[in-house]
Every structure is written in C-alpha cells, then in structure tokens.
Amino acid sequence: MLTPNQAQERAVALVERARRAGADAADAVFIADSSESVSVRLGRLEDVERSESEHIGLRVFVGRRSASIGSSDLSDGALQELAERAIAMAAAAPEDPYAGLAPEDRLLRGPLPELDMAETTEPGPQDLRALADAAEDAARAIPGVTNSEGAGASAGAGVVALATSHGFAGGYAGTNRSISASVVAGEGGAMQRDYGWRTARHMADLPSAAEIGTMAGERAVARLNPGRMKSGAMPVVFDPRVGGSLIGHLVGAMSGSAIARRSSFLLDRLEEQLFDSAITITDDPHRLRGLRSRPFDGEGLPCAASNLVQGGRLTGWLMDSAAARQLGLEPTGHAARGHSGAPGVSPSNLHLAPGSLSVAELIADITEGVFVTELIGHGVNGVTGDYSRGASGFRIVNGEVTEAVAEFTIAGNLIDMYRALTPANDMEWHRTINVPTIRVDGMSIAGD
C-alpha cells in the first residue's frame, strides 16, 4: 500500500502530464485499497479473500468543456494515453457555463488535520478466523438459535489523494475493521433470521466478537412467531439501526445539484420550520476515527463541523463548486469524489442530537404503535418526499414493547414525518449516521 505522500505524488504527476498535453486545468484523484476477510459457517472455514486495487481518475478542462476518465493501469504509457484521450473527449464535449475547479482562494492551505483514521497493526488471517469463530459460537449459544448463515471478520486499508492544477495536493490514509454474524432461529416455516455487525477504523473500537454474536442470536430469537399489525394511523418508533435512514433522505434532498434541477422535496423550504425547534443535525468531517472523516473535500476545499439543521431549520444546501455557481452561492466543503467523474456531494459523519427523554419515557404514552427494527425496499420519492417501506419489528401496547410483528408497511410524507419527529436520549456513536431512538407520530400502517 502506498503512503499518502506517494499517492499524492502520483496524482500531481498526472495533472502535470495533462497540462503538458494541452489541458487548461485539471485535477486527479488516486484511490488505493486492500482488504482481507475470513468467513466461517457452522464452525468450519468457508472463505478467505484478499483484494487489492489502485485506480486513478483524471478530469480535464478545455475552456468550459470538460471530460473525466479513469484507469487502473498506472504505467507511463497508459497515463500518457489517458491524458491525451481525456483532452480529446473534452474538446468534443458541450460547453458548461458552471464547469471548473473550485475557487483557488478557497483551497485548503497548510497542514492537514490529524484524524487518527489508520492504525499501524494489521490482523492476520488467523486473527480474523478467531474473531469470526468467536462471533458465531456466541450467536449459536443463544437458546432458540437453530442454524447459522455464517460469521466473518475483515480488515482493510486505503489511501486517497487529490491534486489540482491550481495549487492543491493532499492525501490521507485510513483503515477499517469489521466483525459480523448472521443466524437463524426457529424451525421450518417459522424460521427468522437476524444479524449483528459492527465496523470501526481501529480494532480497539469494536465490541468483542462474542458481544456481536450474542446480539445476532438474541435479535433472531426475539423475532420468532411474529404477529400482524392492524392498519391505521399510529406512532412509529425507529430503532437506531434503521432511524439513520430518515436523516439520509434529508441530506440527499439537500444536494445543491438537486435544488438547481428543482428535483428535491426540500425545494423552497430553506426558511421553513422543518423540525421541532429543539432538533439539531450536525455534520462533522473531523471526528476522530470517524467512518467518513476527511481532512479535505473532493475539490481540495477545507471542511469543518457544521449544523445542517439548527433550531429545526435548514441552514443551507450541500454544494460542490458547479452547483454553487449555478445557484449563485458558495461551495460548502461537501464535494465528494469517486474513482472518476465530476464531484458530487456527500456529508461526512452525521448525527441527530439526542433529546431529553429515555426510550421508556418516549413510548410511555403510546397506546398502540410499532417499534421498527428492519426496513425493506426503497419506496421513497426524492422529489415529493412520499415515503412507503415494508417493515418488521415489535408491537407497542400501553407504553410497552411486546410481541414481534412482520409483513406490514409504514407510510407518510417526509415533510410531515420530520415535523412529528422526537428523538430519545440513547445516542449511539458507531455508524456513519448516528441517531438515538426516534419517534414519529401519525404515520400510516398497512397491515391486516
């Protein structure tokens, strides 16, 4: 695996090659990663995988015309051909009045922030095998668990570098570690499955493999013999492992390009009281060891913690430079890059600030409702905000979580759901979107 400095040098060299070939401006992104994983099932080794990849992407500008191209062949001849082909493609592309690199005066200058995203020790295959075995053994030890879909452990590392022709060059590295288990409870047609899974930058930040396996087993057993929900309007309470998706829909609609295209359900709602005034949603790219932490954005701009929602109101849109030019605004440091292509936008580590009520207090006055632990399907309209998804979970009766329930649908409109949203105080901090338990009143349930 290359160091961040070596990756940065490769990106810089490709930009210089593109300029010599005739580009007016250019940027390059280099991404390399490696991973190793071990999976077991019923106490036996199922698979050992090792993968490594390197990819470089180039974007060139010829006047207001641009083109992007990428390659995993990093030889001199291939990179020279890459630069020449990109310029030929740009010359044939239509003009875009909003195309261009980020404003030069906004580029990140000086040292990059230290975010502690990479650990130096690498677990070996035997270490990963031991973790996978421990997770599966703990899951299978739960009374009621009858079969295993397998357990696994993995370790990976990656490096990202970006260089632009107008003065930015930077790179950073990160590692990831994960443990998972998936098991089945019950017999025949009454079988239920569930899982436990955690990932972190550092192995020390993971729960023990036995804890993850126990979580998988207990979840599967709790789902046995599910009942059915009656149709009607009632409160829906979202477990933290699914509640983050509600915030994900919000930030997806906050994309500056979606606003510019007028294809977002948040259009014309920037000054509106979207949530209760106590609601704050924060994006923190500099969170130590965060799964989406980054020292700079996909265009070389600095990024910093900011409240996307404050006092229940949106504070603005998430914008790369092209969307900012189109809207007559400024880029926000949320540009994101893949292996090739123009930047899009993406948040980093998101969290919904916890409320003041415990989960027990949050549901105490619910006469009839549902606690959702799994969502199925993708029935969300990003233009209208209409929301409809299959779900399973547990019935709430007179303020208590009771029997398992399955095969029902929850529906509403995201705007109405945000207005009716109340968070508990049980914040969890191990996901890319961290939320406490969330209650949303007045949703429609389609069951029996």
Quick description:
With 448 residues, the protein is of the alpha+beta class. It has helices at residues 4-20, 76-92, 125-140, 209-222, 240-253, 256-261, 321-327, 359-363, 414-419; strands at residues 25-41, 44-62, 65-71, 145-164, 169-185, 192-200, 232-238, 281-283, 306-310, 313-314, 335-336, 344-345, 350-352, 368-376, 386-397, 400-413, 421-423, 433-434, 438-446.
Task: Please tag this protein with its features.
Metalloprtase-TldD/E_cen_dom, 23% helix, TldD/PmbA_sf, alpha+beta, 2 domains, TldD/PmbA family protein, 448 residues, Metalloprtase-TldD/E_C
Q: How many separate structural domains? A: 2
Total beta strand runs = 19
Low-confidence blocks of residues: none
Major β-sheet annotation: 6 strands, antiparallel
Molecular shape: globular
Radius of gyration: 24 Å
> Could you spell the SSE succession in H and E letters?
HEEEHHEEEHEHHEEEHEEEHEEEHEEE
What is the percentage of strand-forming residues?
Answer: 35-45%
Strand order of the largest sheet: 3-2-1-4-5-6
Distance between the termini: 55 Å
Question: What share of residues is helical?
Answer: 10-25%
Pfam families: PmbA_TldD_1st (PF01523), PmbA_TldD_2nd (PF19290), PmbA_TldD_3rd (PF19289)
InterPro entries: Metalloprtase-TldD/E_C, Metalloprtase-TldD/E_cen_dom, Metalloprtase-TldD/E_N, PmbA, TldD/PmbA_N, TldD/PmbA_sf
Family: Belongs to the peptidase U62 family.
Organism: Novosphingobium ovatum
